[in-house]
Design brief:
heterotrimer, A alpha+beta, B alpha/beta, C alpha+beta, B: alpha/beta, 38% helix, C: alpha+beta, two-stranded antiparallel sheet, 3 helices, 3 strands, flat
Chain lengths: 474, 479, 95
């Protein structure tokens, strides 16, 4: 029998706020344990939560970017369960009135485009961090209370690759919306995965297993591959799937059942009496809608039409909003979009890859790159020099024109000087001259290279080529 | 025999202003009263001479330097449920033994700003759950009017301290009557402000949608002074009301002329103790003589109030008390794993009434019961609110008994929780509706047990209930 | 014996409160009685009535996204029943 899988994702995204969801403690990462805490996020007697308005706004912005319907009435609820990482032993979350409903994410897998529907987005508070020691555990509450947006998809993905593509697309949109740093190393995005299998053709979804707390996209991909195989094997060997929570062990490459003494979950949701409902007026939502950034797909299309760059380039450049912004600023400054795009897609991406730097961290500015492109286009410098200067700008900043001047890197376009060098090269390389005359085009490249060497890379290669041909009697 | 701690705030402020006494004198006098009486009365859980004197000296210094804060140098006893930085806050529970408050409740911070001295912590029913203060894990508090009887609860320590001359004034909290009922039992004034009028930040929550902090004092004027200092919007409490705070004490009237007082017929029916009824009937007459116009009103959903209250209050409490788990503060009983540790800590740390209510609250929220109990209770709560909205279209305040009977004997109702709950019938409605109410001493039974009368006002109607209470108090000859 | 309304031991476990047999017996009786009384809410027709979660109809109470100084680490750990490496120590969590 053939089986198909149904996959749904619950993605928890840490919102980009300065302070926590319900108190003024800092959200910054990496502080000493239990130093970003207060009576509220420690669940002290008498402490009360107060909503961070910015977190609400970021969630609504996300909802608008993802095509959700924004609830005009939304509220928070208490979700009760006892766990040491939960300061109040209830989590403030949203049960039946989340901030956003519906929406979806477009993905492309194997050349095929598909829209993955979303159920909802709600806002809640993060829990603390458990650290396991030999015979005990320790709790650090710095993370407790950080705003988390939970994005719940419909179970509309059928292959692990679709889940992976969904996550990438979602991350891109959230970065575009600037609602989260989406830093996976810092746990900014964590996923719970629901997965079930059913015989192909069967209309009814199978019993699902939930894989909890995956913090890499690769983990989602690999755990799903494993889990789908496991469920199919289980069914094929005559077994049944138990509804349960499983954990992904990346080292072992397998999921395993979490042994739990818990009774069946009974979260006892009820409206949070300490927080008032959120009522969003039409005009407030409209204001946010008007200030939304462009979606990646729209930006890509615009890059093609507005700047005349190839679709492939536009796709690469628009993948990261900051790279896209850098490109656009450069293209506008120098008016030479294709050259700007080439420089970013080759030199910039290569150096960023080598140095593992983010575009935020590099020293080169769009102004500098625009000037560099102009210098090259105006043949003040040749492409070798341009690459060299790019590396200098990338690492140390500055402006290209002054670097060219300081170091005397200006291209030699003086005919007399070039002819002098050409003649010298012809005299020294009779064999290559003969080869060229015999029709070997490669010989010309070698001779140009020799001219460049003589000029210490500064000769205008086009001029050198034409003079070479001329002197060799062509 | 104490001389200063039996006085009212207004009397002491006059003496302080004249320079006849210092805050230190008052605090020392109060400490002496505690030292001599409290072994018998059991009103306090904790007091520190060093801490109180230090604050009093600071107040005296402020006064000498020309500070004219409204309560400068007045000691206030604080129910053990409110966080006062550096002091214990046990809520009369074993589970909070060892916890030291690391911050001031907003109400406390405001009182400090007004110059008050936080002069010790009063006994209460554990986590404010009870009507007798017998549910304290630490001690029994006795009614100063008759030490064989309960002081009421849950703010029994505060009421007993004020009535027994061990406190100039005190703070209580009221979730279903816990300020008004002990005030009535002990013979003092107890004000429950409208929900949200005083910030709850720093009040260890019992039922978040019902809890309010309020004063327990010797006079209505004193209650007005304390309320004025504590009331107002608070950025730390989203449920606090931001409306401006009137100068309550300055605006107390001399007459009830032109005031319509509603008499809710459901509060004056069967089941009222005859002596209480007699006091209430007399009180109605006093009001009438003071110029009030009386109208009969109806609060038709009154008979559902207790059921509604015990569903909502216990549900909220079950979540509010979940945080007491022995992880971050308070007492801990070791366990094999975290869950085992919770179960043991909470078994040892909570008394029977708290366990009973937490279990009830857990039950009414649990899967399959939510709609039948919690959701339904919230809907009935709407009906109860509407009853009051309709009533307050006909009058500006309501007059009613505080409790069906005067203070009972210690131990009398311990084994029958439901009977105990039913005694809250005249007080829980104000909490459910979010309105304000005051209990003012109105008379004595043949056994000299105090009986209070309750004035209820609409949300933010504090001026009206303080006014009615003030005029009544004077007309009844108690001031 | 009428139908049992409440499974005290199960609910107490949800609330993470251990109870001995004697307590279960006492609570069983008392809670049945209380729940029996509370059942009177069923008498009322509440169709179409909005539930009240808050006493006053206030909405949209927000704070600015501004960092405020929290508690001193020392005072926080001072209240901890047990501590290890600047963290709250608990029995080993088995996940």
């Amino acid at each position: 029998m053939k089986y198909m899988a149904d996959i749904g994702l619950e993605v928890h995204v840490q919102l980009k706020t300065e302070s926590k969801m319900f108190c003024g403690c800092s959200t910054s990462f990496g502080a000493d344990p239990n130093t970003h805490v207060c009576p509220v996020c420690l669940g002290y007697p008498g402490a009360m939560p107060v909503m961070n308005g910015h977190a609400i706004q970021l969630t609504v912005t996300s909802g608008l970017m993802l095509g959700c319907e924004i609830s005009n009435y939304s509220k928070f609820d208490r979700k009760s369960y006892f766990y040491p990482d939960m300061p109040k032993n209830y989590q403030i979350s949203q049960y039946d009135k989340p901030l956003c409903l519906g929406g979806g994410v477009d993905i492309v897998v194997g050349g095929e485009q598909k829209r993955i529907g979303m159920t909802r987005i709600h806002l809640e508070e993060d829990v603390a961090k458990n650290i396991h020691f030999g015979d005990c555990s320790g709790i650090d509450f710095n993370r407790a209370g950080i705003p988390l947006m939970e994005i719940v998809s419909e179970p509309e993905m059928h292959r692990p690759e679709e889940a992976f593509a969904y996550l990438l697309a979602l991350k891109r949109i959230l970065q575009y919306a600037d609602v989260s740093d989406c830093n996976l190393e810092e746990g900014n995005i964590r996923c719970d995965v629901n997965c079930s299998v059913r015989p192909e053709g069967s209309a009814e979804l199978g019993t699902k297993a939930e894989i909890k707390n995956l913090n890499t996209f690769k983990g989602v991909l690999n755990s799903l591959k494993y889990e789908i195989d496991r469920q199919v094997e289980e069914l094929e060997s005559g077994g049944t799937i138990v509804q349960e929570t499983r954990r992904w062990d990346a080292d072992a490459g397998m999921t395993y059942s979490m042994r739990t003494k818990e009774y069946a979950h009974d979260y006892r949701y009820f409206p949070e009496p300490d927080l008032m409902p959120v009522v969003l007026e039409e005009h407030q939502v409209a204001e946010l809608r008007d200030s939304l950034p462009e979606l990646p797909a729209a930006k890509k299309a615009r890059f093609v039409s507005e700047y005349g760059i190839p679709e492939y380039d536009a796709g690469v450049l628009s993948a990261d909003r900051k790279v896209a912004d850098f490109f656009e600023a450069t293209a506008r400054l120098c008016g030479k979009a294709k050259s700007a795009s080439n420089m970013i897609m080759t030199e910039m991406m290569r150096l960023m890859g080598e140095t593992e730097m983010d575009i935020d961290q590099v020293k080169i500015t769009p102004e500098a790159l625009a000037e560099l492109v102009s210098l090259q286009e105006g043949r003040t410098i040749n492409s070798n020099t341009a690459r060299e200067i790019f590396a200098e700008l990338f690492n140390n900043g500055g402006m290209p024109a002054s670097i060219v001047e300081e170091r005397g890197l200006g291209q030699v376009s003086d005919e007399g000087a070039i002819v002098e060098m050409v003649d010298k090269v012809i005299a020294e390389n009779q064999k290559s001259v003969d080869d060229y005359k015999a029709g070997k085009e490669a010989a010309l490249k070698f001779l140009i290279g020799q001219v460049m060497r003589h000029s210490k890379g500064k000769a205008d290669p086009q001029l050198a080529a034409s003079k070479l041909k001329e002197r060799m009697g062509n | 025999m104490p001389e200063l701690s039996i006085k009212t705030i207004t009397e002491l402020l006059t003496l302080l202003d004249k320079g006849d006494i210092s805050s230190e004198d008052i605090v020392r006098d109060q400490l002496a009263a505690i030292a001599s009486n409290d072994a018998e009365l059991g009103a306090y859980i904790w007091s520190s001479e060093e801490d109180a004197i230090l604050q009093a000296k600071e107040a005296d210094r402020r006064r000498q330097s020309g500070d004219s804060a409204p309560l400068l140098g007045i000691p206030v006893a604080v129910k053990d449920v409110l966080n006062v930085k550096g002091q214990p806050c046990t809520c009369a529970s074993r589970i909070l033994e060892g916890y030291t408050a690391v911050y001031d409740a907003t109400s406390i911070a405001k009182l400090r700003q007004a110059g008050a001295v936080m002069a010790g912590r009063t006994n209460m029913d554990e986590f404010a759950m009870g009507s007798t203060t017998e549910n304290s894990a630490f001690k029994v508090t006795k009614n100063p009017a008759d030490t064989s009887r309960v002081p009421g609860g849950s703010s029994g320590g505060s009421a007993a301290a004020v009535a027994g001359g061990e406190a100039v004034a005190a703070l209580g909290t009221d979730t279903g009557g816990s300020i008004r009922q002990p005030a009535s039992f002990c013979g003092c004034v107890g004000l429950k402000p409208s929900y949200g009028r005083v910030s709850r930040y720093g009040l260890t929550a019992f039922a978040s949608s019902l809890d309010q902090i309020g004063p327990i004092t010797k006079t209505v004027e004193d209650a007005a002074l304390l309320l004025e200092a504590m009331a107002g919007g608070d950025p730390m409490d989203s449920t606090s009301l931001i409306e401006p705070v009137p100068a309550y004490a300055d605006r107390l009237p001399d007459t009830l002329a032109g005031v319509k007082i509603g008499l809710p017929k459901e509060y004056l029916g069967d089941g009222l103790d005859p002596e209480v009824r007699a006091v209430i009937e007399e009180s109605i007459k006093v009001c009438e003589e003071a110029g009030a116009e009386l109208v009969e009103v109806s609060l038709p959903h009154t008979e559902y109030a207790i059921a509604t209250y015990y569903v909502i209050a216990t549900a909220e409490a079950s979540a509010n008390l979940a945080r007491f788990d022995g992880v971050r503060y308070g007492a801990r009983v070791a366990g094999a794993d975290p869950i085992d540790m919770y179960c043991r800590t909470r078994e040892a740390g909570f008394g029977p009434e708290v366990k009973r209510r937490v279990i009830l609250g857990t039950y009414v929220l649990s899967s399959g019961y939510y709609d039948a109990y919690y959701l339904r209770a919230q809907k009935v709560r709407t009906l109860i609110r509407r009853d009051f909205e309709a009533a307050f279209k006909q009058c500006s305040v309501l007059l009613s008994p505080v409790t069906p009977a005067p203070a009972y004997k210690l131990g009398e109702k311990e084994s029958d929780p439901l009977q105990m709950y039913l005694g809250d019938i005249f007080t829980v409605t104000a909490n459910l509706a979010g309105i304000c109410g005051i209990s003012v001493p109105a008379g004595l039974t043949a056994e000299k047990l105090p009986v209070g009368v309750q004035f209820l006002g609409p949300a933010l109607g504090e001026e009206a209930v303080l006014g009615a209470g003030h005029v009544f108090e004077r007309a009844a000859g108690r001031q | 014996m009428p139908e049992k309304k409440i499974d005290v031991r199960y609910v107490a476990n949800l609330a993470r409160i251990a109870l001995d047999d004697e307590e279960v017996a006492v609570f069983q009786k008392q809670l049945e009685q209380i729940v029996g009384y509370v059942d009177k809410l069923g008498e009322l027709d509440v169709a179409g009535i909005e539930p009240t979660s808050h006493a006053h109809p206030v909405t949209n109470v927000f704070r600015e996204d501004v960092v405020r100084q929290g508690l001193e680490h020392e005072s926080v750990m001072h209240n901890a029943p047990e501590e290890t490496m600047d963290q709250f120590k608990v029995p080993k969590i088995v996940e």
